[in-house]
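Hi team,

As requested, here is the filled-out complex form for the magnesium ion run. I kept the field names the same as last time so the parser does not choke. Let me know if anything looks off before we queue the next batch.

— J.
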Amino acid sequence: MTGPGGPAKAAVMGDLGVIVAVTAGLGLVVAVLGVWAMWALRRRSIGVMLAVVMVVSVTATLAGVVAITLMMIIEGRVRDIVLSVVAVAGLVGLGVAFVLARRVVGESRRLAAAVRRLPFTAPRGLPAELQTIADTLEEANARERALEEARRELVAWVSHDLRTPLAGMRAMAEALEDGVVADPATVTRYHAQIRLEVERLSAMVDDLFELSRIHAGALRLSRARIGLSDLVADTVAGAEPLARAKGVRLAAEAGQAVPVEADAGALGRALGNLVVNAIRHTPADRTVTLRAGVEEGMACVSVSDCCGGIPAADLPRVFDVAFRGEAARTPTPDGGAGLGLAIAQGIVEAHDGMIGVVNDGPGCRFEIRLPLVR
Ligand SMILES: Nc1ncnc2c1ncn2[C@@H]1O[C@H](COP(=O)(O)OP(=O)(O)OP(=O)(O)O)[C@@H](O)[C@H]1O
Ligand SMILES: [Mg+2]
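And here is what came back:
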């Protein structure tokens, strides 16, 4: 049963179906053409792409409206009004797209110009995505500059550190060669001194080589399951002669088993560097203590000494390459090149661990934390 007005309603529904089908069909054709155009222009400016998007949407609307007005034989004023409304809306859309495209193109040119200027500082007020790119670039640039600066400093300091002992060795070698020194005691002393300097310089060259491998990401770790307590015992045994020579006591506190996945050689070297530093900065008759244990779910090994504390201003810098604490880099008999802690940090980070230092009690405490093996 159809109520009054039923056939009219059905006719309207039918018309609506036709309208939807026609506009969707035309829209699909225009969309396919638009996608093809976008693909063909994919390497062109974002402005061109925006123009394509706008042309596609205006054309789809126009095509639909024109088809429908023709099909329904809408004539005269109504058709003119509909078509001009669509035309004006299309023009407005194109205008807005043009303004937007100009802005995007202008801002990306501004970014490109800023990148070419050095040092790079990110321009402000860019659209969000461009601003993210600019900020990321600025960070990367600053990191790169800091690294470059550190490299330059290292080369300057290392050449300074090499020059002084080399000049000394040369003078001694010349004196021996020319027979300027002849008494057996001095000759023996010179020979011993030259051997000592050669050993020190070789150790420094080894350190530099190790550091450059760490920085190049070429450190190859052969990891195995090891116990931190064993590592502490080995390190103490290795450092015993040095400690005895300085009159420093070495103590190890490692009760429980602390298993880690590590390269024993590399990690031993890192811990050894900490212990040598601790012995160097601890007065005779005082103690350097090594502890291995578990803290906050991480394997932890620490070296405490009696150095009297590191100045607060130096604390964040001790791991920097070539940092040695004193401003004047006068070589001291037992002074190093300032590479030990940078190497230790590189090795620990290659093990996905962390290394840090705090002033504690009569001295400072260096601490290595590593992921615990379950
Ligand atoms: N245990 C410590 N107590 C006090 N100061 C320390 C200690 N360890 C390191 N430092 C400070 O940090 C600086 C850097 O240490 P690092 O081990 O990197 O270099 P270095 O010992 O001077 O030379 P290298 O290790 O290359 O022989 C030291 O020169 C010293 O000033
Ligand atoms: Mg050192």
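Two things worth flagging: Residues 207, 273, 277-278, 281, 305, 307, 310, 318, 323-325, 336-342, 364 surround adenosine-5'-triphosphate (ligand 1) (CB under 6 Å). Strands lie at 224-227, 249-253, 259-262, 287-295, 298-304, 354-360, 363-371.

Thanks,
J.
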